[in-house]
Write a structure and sequence with these properties.
This protein has helices at 2-22, 26-37, 40-58, 68-91, 94-124, 138-154, 159-167, 172-198, 202-227, 231-256, 294-299, 322-335, 350-361, 379-383, 386-392, 406-422, 439-457, 473-484, 500-518, 545-558, 567-580, 602-606; strands spanning 290-292, 306-310, 340-346, 365-371, 396-400, 427-430, 462-469, 491-495, 530-532, 586-591. With 607 residues, the protein is of the alpha/beta class. The chain has three domains: 2-256, no CATH class; 275-316 and 438-606, Rossmann fold (3-Layer(aba) Sandwich); 322-430, Rossmann fold, CATH 3.40.50. It is elongated.
């Protein structure tokens, strides 16, 4: 992490120096380094924020050099171009978008070089009128339009107006000042678009603040350099920046050809039905990271890139997939005015632990009913891990003697709720058995949209997603969301509680219930429901040697902590798929968390 920060600081210093001297170029230097260190959305957001900081620092001192009439014309064109670029962002593949942008910048580069050459000839012949800077006509409006479109689609608004101004005969100070003034107003549009599409992580903001000194130092050096640069050198330097931009776009296009030319997954109006209308409590900051696992990729034969969706990092009380589900359950609880939440689950239930945490976060009490699903009586299992956290959170604990009686467990939970109601409490029950509105699955309908946006941003071709399949809410919600959004990416559920013969119909039923809840068409076909129980033995809450090996492999290659009940079994299935897979597309592992459970299984993990 320290090395990454040093690398970013050096890149930001160099990039801000370039932008301060020329008016453009921050993304050319900082962009590749940001993408190397961070996920794609965060990289773009930080690049835009730092570029805006440069403009905000420089523009006040450059007001007298701004070509006001051109700035207004550029701005008018950008007003039209920015929304169009947003539309293009959704309708055009990222590969085609970069190709078109590369051609546009390349054409502008030829214009700069040709105009520069013609200007020298005319100046030598004493034709002063011929080299007067262009300030009127349709060209400035067109340049503003292209700048706006490239801003909202690629966060690259600067090269086009800067190159056109230079080629049209404007002095370097006017080029620099006018372009920086334009970007001061148009960069926020790119940032707001990114925020709308993929959300904002506060880590992004803090990293921006931490790197601000390097940016400010680069600005100071850039200011000194621009005073020593002649008009001739400036124009050739600008041409070099344009050449670098074109080379970067086409190189990236070649590198990702065959994988990045697929269309973006879109979110058409109404694609997710009533989702936005349903009450939802905000419990974590999205999106969770989508990370490459290079060491695990190599350990599994390197046939295809392996990625992990870090839903173990959902902020609250050690995190996990249930946080997404609880946003909708607890949202409904709040809407009903509940002051107490009840849930049933295994003794080491991650869902129960996170329900207690979510309830406390929202000012509610929590009652947890333990079911005896696992024949394990050692003190660590009964007192450590999730149990310890539930006690710290002050949850009221109950016991239910059966482990495979979902209907009976729900019935007893209802009885406890009625007892609480008699004392004046307002209970809300999170049910276990199928047949209830699958609110929790909606958390993974949202996750499907988030994941597709990340896949698009990272320009990935994905051949499969592997996820734990227990209650079915995570598996069904993810699968339903992908199909509702037009994605055909295969999803494999790793059975963690019941065999495939029982789990398959459960997922099918949950998908139908989600469609009914959202009042939209169910696009999940029978062939889409893929489950395997190859890693279930010796049963729920117990791990085979293959599962324990997968847990150790993930820890020792990627420092991922997995539990033996859910994520460990899923990783065993994921590793098996990675080693056997044919093709070139990536595979994605959904890390559902369960970290506290590790401490309840110390004997198994250290045997």
């Amino acid at each position: 992490m320290e090395q990454d920060l040093i690398l970013l600081a050096v890149a930001f210093f160099s990039a801000s120096m370039l932008q301060a001297a020329t008016g453009i170029g921050f993304g050319i230097i900082a962009g590749p380094v940001l993408l190397l260190v961070l996920n794609s959305p965060a990289a773009i957001q930080i690049s835009v924020l730092q570029s805006w900081l440069i403009c905000a620092v420089l523009v006040p001192g450059l007001r007298s050099a701004v070509q006001t009439d051109l700035l207004k014309t550029f701005a008018k064109g950008s007003v039209i171009g920015i929304p169009l670029g947003g539309v293009v962002y959704f309708l055009v593949s990222i590969g085609l978008l970069k190709f078109l942008a590369g051609l546009t910048v390349l054409g502008t580069l030829f214009f700069v070089l040709h105009s520069h050459n013609e200007g020298r000839k005319r100046s030598a012949n004493g034709d002063a009128e011929a080299v007067m800077p262009v300030t009127a006509g349709p060209w400035p409006l067109s340049m503003g339009f292209i700048s706006g479109a490239m801003n909202s689609s690629l966060a690259m608004p600067g090269p086009i107006p800067a190159a056109w101004m230079s080629g049209a005969g404007h002095a370097k100070d006017r080029v620099r000042a006018t372009v920086l003034a334009l970007l001061l107003f148009t960069y926020p549009a790119a940032f707001l678009l990114q925020w709308f599409l993929v959300g904002l992580e506060w880590n992004t903001v803090w990293l921006c603040l931490g790197l601000a000194p390097a940016t400010l130092l680069g600005i100071m050096v850039g200011r000194l350099l621009v005073r020593r640069v002649t008009e001739e050198v400036f124009r050739w330097f600008l041409a070099l920046v344009l050449i670098s931009t074109v080379a970067g776009l086409f190189y990236d296009l070649v590198q990702t050809s065959g994988t990045a030319m697929t269309d973006r997954e879109k979110t058409p109006s109404g694609a997710l039905g009533r989702l936005a209308e349903l009450p939802r409590a905000k419990l974590f900051h999205a999106p969770t990271h989508l990370e490459l696992m290079p060491n695990l990729t190599a350990a599994c034969g390197g046939k295809r890139a392996l990625y992990v969706k870090r839903d173990d990092l959902t902020d609250m009380a050690f995190g996990g997939n249930k946080v997404r589900q609880l946003e909708f359950y607890l949202g409904e609880a709040q809407a009903q005015g509940a002051d107490t939440v009840l849930i049933t689950g295994a003794v080491q239930s991650n869902f129960a632990r996170l329900t207690a945490a979510g309830a406390r976060k929202l000012g509610m009490e929590c009652h947890i009913q333990w079911e005896e699903r696992v024949a394990k009586q050692d003190p660590r299992y009964r007192n450590s891990g999730n149990v310890l956290i539930e006690r710290i959170l002050g949850a009221t604990l109950h016991s239910y003697p059966e482990g495979e009686d979902e209907t009976g467990a729900d019935r007893r939970l209802g009885e406890i709720a009625e007892e609480l109601r008699q004392t004046g409490r307002k209970p809300y029950v999170i049910p276990l058995a199928p047949g209830h509105a699958p609110l929790g699955a909606l958390g993974y309908v949202v996750a499907a949209r988030e994941l597709l946006q990340q896949i698009t941003a990272a320009e990935l071709a994905v051949d499969g997603i592997v996820v734990a399949s227990g209650s079915g809410a995570t598996h069904a919600g993810l699968l339903f969301g992908l199909r509702a959004l037009g994605s055909s990416i295969p999803v494999t559920g790793i059975c963690v509680r019941r065999d495939a013969a029982a789990q398959g119909p459960r997922i099918t039923q949950r998908c139908a219930e989600v469609a009914e809840l959202l009042q939209i068409e169910n696009r999940v076909a029978d062939k889409d429901v893929v489950v395997t129980d190859a890693f279930l033995a010796p049963g729920y809450g117990r791990a085979s040697e293959e599962v324990l090996d997968a847990i150790r492999l993930a820890a020792r290659t990627e420092a991922l902590m997995l539990d033996p009940v859910y994520s460990g079994k899923t990783m065993a299935g994921f590793v098996s798929a990675a080693r056997q897979a044919e093709g070139e597309g990536a595979l994605i592992f959904i890390h559902t968390g369960g970290t506290p459970g590790i401490f309840a299984y110390e004997d198994d993990l250290t045997a």
